[in-house]
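(Structure overview)
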Amino acid sequence: MSAKCKESNKPCAIHEPEPLESLTVRAARLAESLEQSVRDFIVASDQNLGDIEVQVERQSRELQRQATEKAAQAKADVSPPVCPVCGKVLSGVSRDHGRTFESRFGPITVRRARGYCRRCKKWRFPADTVLGLADTAGYSPRVQEMAALLASKMPVNEASAVLEHLTGVKLPRATLDREARRQGKRARQVRHQEDEQACGVAKKPVQPELVLEPYQMIIQMDAWNIRERDEWGKTKALRQGGKEPERWHWVYTGTCFRLDHRAKTAGGRPVISERGFVATREGIDGLREQLHAEALRRGLGQAAGALVIGDGAVWIWRLADDRFKDARQRLDFYHAVEHLAVVGRAVFGEDKDKLRDWLRPLVRQLKNQAAIKVVHQLEDILAELPAGAPVEVVQKEVNYFHEHQDRMDYRAGQRRGEPIGSGAVESTCRQTQCRFKRPGQYWSQEGDESLLCLETFWRNGRWHLLFPHNRQLDLSKRWHEYWQPVRQAPTSSIMKTYYLKANTHTNVHSTTQAPNGQVPPYEEIKLGIDWHADHLRVSRMIDGTPPQPAQRFTHAGFLEFAAKQLTLARKVYSCYEAGPGGYVLHRQLTQLGLTDFVVHPVNLDAQHKRVATDKTDCRQLVLNLDRFLHGSDKALCPVYVPTAEEEQRRARVRQREQLRKERHRLAMIGRSLLLSQGWRENTRWWQARWESLADQLPGWLREQLEIWRQLIQAVDQQLRPLTRAIEATAPALRPRGLGPLTFAALLAELCRWDRFKKARALGGYTGLCGGVSSSGPHHLDLSITKAGNGRVRQLLIELAWRMVLYQPDYVPVKKYRDILLGPRTHARRKKQLIVGLARQLATDLWRWQTGRATAQQLGWLMTPA
């Protein structure tokens, strides 16, 4: 190729590029070269395995580089000419723009297209974004990752030498430092987005984890100092001005983990299997947001409780009160002992033997008994101090113990298996300091925060968020592989059963088989469960025997008990009454393999003996379950169990209704306050009318109403987007009068229209059927039963009135329209007719949604799609 062609980077028609060999041919040549190297290695007496490793790496490096270059070029060739920022098609597209950058296997060159984006008003290279090269300084994503990781682990000078020695990639010190800073800045942006999402700012529905056993979340906090270049070069001038320059600043650190993730290695060393790390130079506010988000990601929302452990610093307890309001607080035991030692040194001076003899029983008492006893002994020592003794020192420590008395529940914590010290966060601080506290190191806040952010991403197993090419790797397990095989969880058998059933594609039935292929000793086992928030009462029936005495279980203990029943009988049934516990227990039992029924709650004291306890309730439940399984359909009334998605959809609709009622309640409070002062307004006084109304009101009244108005507006701001989101789920084609909000609310409450096999079942669920009292010759028609779902009944009544106005051709409306709208019709008669119309409307909606009738057959006018 001529020099002119080379300068233009475009081959001319005469000087075509030489055809390149295929990777297959190159691989064959490499194989031959490697075979020769192996033969040479065998006869070389002065070479070991390391020598052949180096030779193989060097010889195969060129092939890897060529393969990478070919793949990158092919990817660039198929990249569409669209703007990677706004997606608009680029104009003035030209090709063959070469770019050389350093990859893991050496420099590679890629020719790509360039175009102008009229919307962004910038020239774009779409292939750069596709290859992960946008905004880089000539290095591939893999090299960027290596630079960021090594810089976060060791000084840049060492990192540059280590990188070249291990990989052959040459990155100068300044380049590596600049790349690490850039990746750290990007990591801080990603961290901010992840924290917002975890704290609920970015509304994203997340399927909650199925928790088989309640757990406690442990949160620990501490801080350490780092040296920075503050006002570098101005030290002398500052000191002459009487101001000492600041060099040391706090790095706030925290860690969080689940209590059931603590265990021991085979050698007995305590470890934590999974925990989150936070370290920041952004002050207490930065730690507050980051630690709260990390705790939420680690399961704070599903935890049964939380425990905050700290060394007694005031900022720790204030942060805990702000972000972990319901969490218990505990003072680090070893810091408490240090404060006891301060009192001992003040009293006994340099006499170490007396100090030791005095301190040991107090430490045992503090650890194994109540802290108040230790406080009383300290008060006695303070009262008996002779003149000239360091009273102020002892008084300070007594005040310290009084302040933290409620945080010294060490005896109860040990019984619950909780940590009493803050060793986890102390070790976290020490591990982090190993990078930042080396001789001669000075930092800037931007630099150390960037490296701290990179380190926390690595330790938290979220490195793939920065470098997506690692998304196939499970980095969360790399810290704990050493001890994982010996860990014994309290409910390991339950977790194993749940894991196998949740991760296999076979159907799970309640028919089980005993271990080793043996036939289970019983045919059926039935369990009646009386549910409580902190425990369960369970009565068991084996085959046809009478119910056994009720037993009390924790939720986790009952799951283990239920799993054992599967090995004792061919079929295992259970039931419990629907209530505030929802359907979590049902889903857990179903996952284990039981056949469970959630039943409608009834009065279990059928004979009115006025004796109703947990034991009698679960006994009666298991008796009713036995009758139900033997054909008595009236013994139990199983309720429909919604799926998790249906339950979430229904909860959102109900939340919207709760917000609407709350807005109305607050508006009524303001309206009554206005009325008490002679101002008659409607419940919309807080809207457009407020501006003119406020000028006429007295100052004190306007001030009070402004508070209520701000609360109403806050609720209204949450209500409006939620309403729009619910309405968006409704189909466009609907009968006139049936708005999107009503349709979505009906569907959310009913879950599925096809769950009702007959129209009679739907009518009973709405509670719009008339009651009856009939005995012998006496017969009396009563008002509607109001059984079932009251929310559905209210929606249908409102919808029925709208159908009267918007559906004149609807057959029931034709029949009763004149009576319902007649001015002389009595209100009682209108109620009777509208209830009948609502009941018929529910049936027709069911027929329409299940395909049993069309809108034309029902005489409905439809909204345009």
Summary: The longest helix spans residues 644-676. The chain has a mean pLDDT of 84. The CA atoms of residues 372 and 557 lie 35 Å apart. The radius of gyration is 37 Å.
